[in-house]
Short-chain dehydrogenase (Propioniciclava flava), 254 residues
Amino acid sequence: MAQDRFSLAGKNAVVTGGAQGIGKVVAHALAEQGANVALVDLNDATQVAAEIASTHGVRTTALTCNVTDPAQVADAIAGAAAELGPLDLLFNNAGIVLHKPALECTPEDFTRVVDVNLNGIFFVAQAFARHLVEQGRPGNIVNTASMSGTIVNIPQKQASYNASKAGVEHLTKSLAVEWADLGIRVNAISPGYIATEMTGTVREDWRQAWEGMIPFGRMGTPDELAGAVIYLLSDAATYTSGANIIIDGCFTVV
Ligand code: NAD
């Protein structure tokens, strides 16, 4: 296969949760493949956008947005298109985790996690797809699910997170089928334990327990997810939609 099938040159991409962690690293990787990138995050990603532009020579912008608010999401998608031009690609990745026993979870706790991780993924995908339809363009989406949407891992207790990520996996399949005739592909990645700000604050005994359970013997890095996202967003994957690539150092295989 020709190398350039993985090129994203000239494509305009939106990355949610792009201020740090997986989103930031994948945004760099998309830019390395030639994509212009709009970083959408609750936090200001201006500095990250500037770094990406100067490192990779692409156009970037940073938009502050809470993905749980459809009006803010619509503004962010419109803002990204106003800065970069018509949009092609979405890495729909913003998420939060809550470690709390289910018996102690308040309605607010559960709702907050599902709101960001599942509702937010839907609102962003919907706004992006509406933009594509308005523009009469094809496009494609990668949602960040998690291996926790498939398996239940001990010792941490995170029922709200696990349920939200299972929802993302099935939402991905549902949108892939519903939007197939619009030329919009929708896929997911399901990371295992990845070293980011999100996992950096967990208890040391949990970290050691996780590492002991991973056949690879270590956590992954965000950069080890980037190739799968590039593949799914590129013309190398034109017949792939509704797929979920698990990237977990074999955690869920054993
Ligand atoms: P992170 O906490 O380092 O980064 C998450 C980013 O999302 C932050 O920049 C944050 O500001 C942003 N964000 C959170 N809530 C938001 C909201 N309401 N609106 C807009 N932006 C919001 O986390 P990460 O480890 O980079 O995780 C990224 C994604 O990967 C998440 O969906 C997470 O669930 C998923 N994931 C992470 C791991 C892991 O081990 N790190 C494993 C599986 C899945």
User: Anything to note?
Assistant: The longest strand covers residues 184-191. Residues 198 and 241 are 28 Å apart (CA to CA).
